[in-house]
Amino acid sequence: xxxxxxxxxxxxxxxxxxxxxxxxxxxxxxxxxxxxxxxxxxxxxxxxxxxxxxxxxxxxxxxxxxxxxxxxxxxxxxxxxxxxxxxxxxxxxxxxxxxxxxxxxxxxxxxxxxxxxxxxxxxxxxxxxxxxxxxxxxxxxxxxxxxxxxxxxxxxxxxxxxxxxxxxxxxxxxxxxxxxxxxxxxxxxxxxxxxxxxxxxxxxxxxxxxxxxxxxxxxxxxxxxxxxxxxxxxxxxxxxxxxxxxxxxxxxxxxxxxxxxxxxxxxxxxxxxxxxxxxxxxxxxxxxxxxxxxxxxxxxxxxxxxxxx
Length: 309
Known about the structure:
By secondary structure, the protein is an alpha/beta fold. Among the domains are: 2-87 and 161-230, Rossmann fold (3-Layer(aba) Sandwich); 236-293, no CATH class. It is 36% helix and 22% strand. The strands form three sheets. The protein has a six-stranded mixed sheet with strand order 6-7-8-3-9-10, sandwiched between helices. The chain has a four-stranded antiparallel sheet with strand order 2-1-4-5, with helices on one face. A three-stranded antiparallel sheet has the order 12-11-13, with no helix packed on it. Strand 4 (57-62) and strand 5 (65-66) form a beta hairpin. Helix 8 packs across helix 11 (296-308). The radius of gyration is 24 Å and the shape is elongated. It starts with a strand and ends with a helix. The mean pLDDT is 89.
């Protein structure tokens, strides 16, 4: 669905490329996360893929269409939720959605909602119900909270049923319940329509659910793979233990042939061992027992740190 080849973007008077020769592909229906620190090139890459920014070199294709030579065709196939709301605050929520639908040529224009095509009304009502906006869909959006604005942007971005949905920090500033509702809806959309999702986020737990993750740093790809593969490669699972008598514990761990790290608490790498069997073998009374399973955040920090060296 997406193919990026040797993509470069250099801004005027910049000392280095914002995007520096990256290559990646995204399959149809895939959930693809693009991660990286501020200034890594994430938003620049999304801007190129959504035709709002021209690349300096290289090329990108969306469903076989070149983002530069066939920009109009690309725009018909994509939806985007920007970092900052892009809604018209002088309109009601439904009017914002209707304006979007008219621009895409989906329905004939009608000045009031009840005169719009039944298919449009049904689509708006179903989407609003799923996101909990049924009562507020006809309210002016200046009365909306930040979470409600994000939900409305999703309704609007999906009205033309795009093949690819780009999400640029979609949950920034939202409270936990709003974030959960938003992702539940996006999961339903993806399952039912097969929409390809490309996400940038600073909430790494959101990227844990991605099919594949690409980590950018300084405009280059630092690592790519499934979240599980990145975690397995970089961050190891270990058992954290401690005891009041640390000398006795270290002596016993040595006799048992268990490798450990630290001067207390001690890290014992799991590496295929049974956690239960390991603990049963330790006779020294323990004051701390904790398992550490690597997260995507652990892997991300390690990868970014290495690429900074």
